[in-house]
Amino acid sequence: MEIAATPGLEQGGVLILDESADAKAGEKSAGSGRQYNGRLGRVDMSQVGTFLAYANGSVWTWVDGELYLPKHWFAPEMAGLREKLGIPAEREFETKIELGWKMIQRTHANGLPFEAICCDDFYGQSSDFRAEMNAAEFIYMADVPHNTQVYLKRPVVGVPEAQPGRHGRKPSRSRVLSPDKPLKASDVARQEDTNWHRVRVRDTERGELNDEFAARRVWTIHEDEPVQEWLVMRRESGGKCTYSMSNASPNTPLKRLAWLKCQRYFAERANQDAKSELGWDELEAQKYLAWMHHLALTILALWFITQTKIEWAEQYARDPRLLQQFEVDVLPALSTANVRTLLRAVMPLPQLTSAGARAQVAKHLVNRTRSRKSRMKGRHRGP
């Protein structure tokens, strides 16, 4: 895979599983139907894709995607429409989690190196999915809902013995036999012995990611067996708490766990670039193959931009004197919008001169640097 052969990306990469919905006017586009649309925040007529993003340092890109086909698309009465829209005859219903797992396996088989897999709570709440990743020896950091049940001590699970003198059927189903009750993840966050620490994760465009994190070894239950995992908790500056489960080794430092927990952000950046800059959400075609072709072109465009960012950083080293000039500690990297500006100077019908394109990019980078300086000063002044 070309990513694996790119200098600087041999290690440190993370795969991020996510989904993205696009509103549709009717049910005649492949996979469309009334389903949850995160962009709208409600159930509406939509077409949903599941996507696998790759992030490494300051670069991110999609690497795979699948069109989700709701179950009703496989009803006998939909056979004619499936054929008309070119949906492969061998295609069967697969959940979004199954599609995600297929993409992860495909990416791994293609030789893309990655250190961990991240996903939101739709995927992370599935103990089956976490078990599959663990069995494949993939490290995961999977968001889970606040009410996820965990145990602080290893629960004893088994079939209870029949009580002497009690009538009725003999117990046959496993349950937790130990007296300790499960806690919600949000309850663990409020425990007195849950130790919170402020961790500086990374520099950001708006300053720095510096939130409070806590991590505890907890137990969950999968297929009637206790499973030990990390419960990683993040408390943002506004007070919002989020929760993740991870199978990282027991001796993993909190700083590493916090870093992994914050990687899912880059899937949002990849989705935003694909839709806002590359026209992913402008697809009007209805057929399945058109969706797949549009996906392939979008992934190629995202990877081209990623390569351009890497090559720009290699060829145009940042002048350290600019840090002192702007009174900042980090200079912004080339953005997708910057790459589009550069392309306007070299496309077959140039809209800008090379000098004009460079000037626009430089101006944009300077404005972003000044914006960062302003935000950092405001943060240091406090309320």
UniProtKB/TrEMBL annotation:
It comes from the Archaea. Residues 161-189, 363-383 are annotated as: Disordered. Residues 365-383 have a biased composition (Basic residues). Residues 12-207 form the Transposase IS701-like DDE domain. It holds the Pfam family DDE_5. NCBIfam families: transpos_IS701. This is Transposase IS701-like DDE domain-containing protein. It comes from Candidatus Methanophagaceae archaeon ANME-1 ERB6.
